[in-house]
Records
---
Amino acid sequence: MCGIGGIIFLKFNELGLEEDLLKAIKRSGFEEATPIQKATIPLVLAGIDVIGQAQTGTGKTAAFGLPILQHVDVKEEHIQAIVVSPTRELAIQTQEELYRLGKDKRAKVQVVYGGADIRRQIKLLKHVPQILVGTPGRLLDHINRKTVDLSHVKTLVLDEADEMLDMGFLEQLSKTFRKKDRRCFFPQRCQRQSAQSAKNSCMNRKLSISRQKSLRPIWSISISSKRANMKNSIS
């Protein structure tokens, strides 16, 4: 057991997750959270902005997806969270996993991406989801067409933000989604100096979860295969 800032990192059934989510986790065959999940889930549940850095296959989708699903109000037919993915394949995969984890809660999750009929997507978006996953270009297209309403979005995830920097979308997305009271999570595989200003424009508080020292962290958490080493490194 370990803690940071009064928040304790525990197993899935001790992380404060709703029973509907725990049922979905158990049905998926997971019992113990990975280091990135143990470290981030309590923080995102608490409304803290997070920069999460870990390798592919370490469970980053569940790390941000479970807190998003917990925060979603299924009685409200508004888009409450947006997940931006760099590729069509990742967007589809993320939507499928969030749908599976949110099935017992009856959360609506939709995906939009380029290369598909936008008219069909517009029609489907009339059945407003609580969570919208999409590629950056297609999401911006829908925003410009006003076929999605951002006014109720409380959580933004830029998945593999370093990849979106390469694609030239990160700064535009951070400006589009900038809002003072919006929770932000930036899962990525590496830390980039040129991405920091775009992140800072969207985040209220900065927390870095990484395998190496971050540039300007509030907390630096080094994720290893066995444990998370944490230290306060305010700069």
---
Amino acid sequence: MVSTSQGDDNRVLNGTEPFDSEAEYMKLLGMIETKSSHFVMGGKSHTYNHLEPIFLLAEPIIRDEKKTRKVNCRCCLYEFKDPKEWTWCEFCGYNIDEKCIRKTRFFPKDMERDLEKKRRGVICKVCDRKFLVHKKVAEIYNHINAAKKINDDSISKLGKQGNAANDEFKSGETGNASVTDNINKIDEEVEAMRKEIKKIKNERKTKKINNTSILEHKEKMESEVHKA
């Protein structure tokens, strides 16, 4: 049994249903957003959003007291026995077990500086993963947008070709109408000439009959004179 989505795809491929590129584009973006919105690390599900503050930092985040009260590592859920056991991520501000510190990373909004002036911050595994997801999603979006542009350009080109063909067809219709008018005019002139020729022939025939009658009358008169 064919699923609804497969049936829809088949109708599009078979040409029985128009392909809406804009709708498909939005559908694809929505699917990517949904697929990338969650990932699992350390047995815990974490969310991703391309508008998160960590992607806009130019310096370490200001720590939130609510985050500093957490007694579990955000990444591995390890329960701290002593505050000295934890460090903190300078991107998200949460308490992190030392083994869950991935590395340091340049702050995103600091990337325009010269290399020696750029600042790096301590980052946890979760935030680091979010940056990887962020980069991958951006690459996918770029590919999709590039493909969409090619598709839009192709549709635009086909549209222009269609309009040109339509204009040419209309021009051809106008030309054909003009030719038809000329042909009809010529036909009328030919018909008028035929009538004129027929009229002349009839006049000649009538004149010939009259001339024959006069000649016969003349010959008859001459014959009667000779008899006399």
---
Amino acid sequence: MNQFFIRLNYLNIFAALKIGRLAFKVLKKDLKNIAIQGVSGSFHEEATRKSFNNQAIEFEFCDTFEQVFLNVKEKNYLGLVAIENSLAGSILPNYGSIQSHGLNIIGETYCEIEQNLMVLPSTSLEDVQEIWSHPMALSQCQSFLNQYPNIKSVEKEDTAKSARIIKQKKLKNTAAIASHTAAEIYGLKIIKRKVQDHKKNFTRFLILSKNKTAISTPNKATLCFSVANQTGSLAKTLTFLAENEMNLTKIQSHPIIGRQWEYFFYIDLLFNSHKKYQYVIANLNNYVSDLNILGAYKNEINI
């Protein structure tokens, strides 16, 4: 009888282990590996969780945007990068990196950004000698920083990483500008809330993939091209887009490396008819050179 129960227990343990392995395989299959710039508590992490709501995520935290692009390209991870901010403008190098690494934009998300000044619990504003944050975050808070000319602004890799280092090294004379989530994670005290120049502060993030898989029913596209250095070349291109009901929501120029005083134009298009979009893509080379479709995806303007 004892041998029977021992054998039964072994069978139960074996079955539980088998179920556990199956559950792990299912979980691993559904797990999304996503590379972002920054550490836990960063705005990139918040934007990723917003975009991939209720999905299991394995984060690859990167110090630089270039590391994000390489993870997407070499490890076939998804990536999420900031591309523009309503106060600080576009992050131009990211456009070039998406193009040079041959990556595909598969989506976008917009997040409201609230910048907060945070310190160790025992530190007051009068103790602060330096304020650390990412350059884009500092530029969003320039009016606030100008009020304290004796406090040095120091550019760092990341907002949340600045908060983490202050906590780890117990820097009593240093503050960070970061999210309220970063303050909670790293046990810092917020002494000034919403220090950005305008209370309505939004950042647009792009979701990147190595794969060129088409998105079903896209209504937005990001393109890159150059035009001849001739009178009216760009105007003719924009007229062609307008005549085919392409809503130009953004245009950005960037120098072409190695080609003096020549420029790439990065544009965002909104459209209601995918058929007309396909017609535009098929005929756009009649007006431009170096055409590159960086991605066709769904517009997300729910901010």
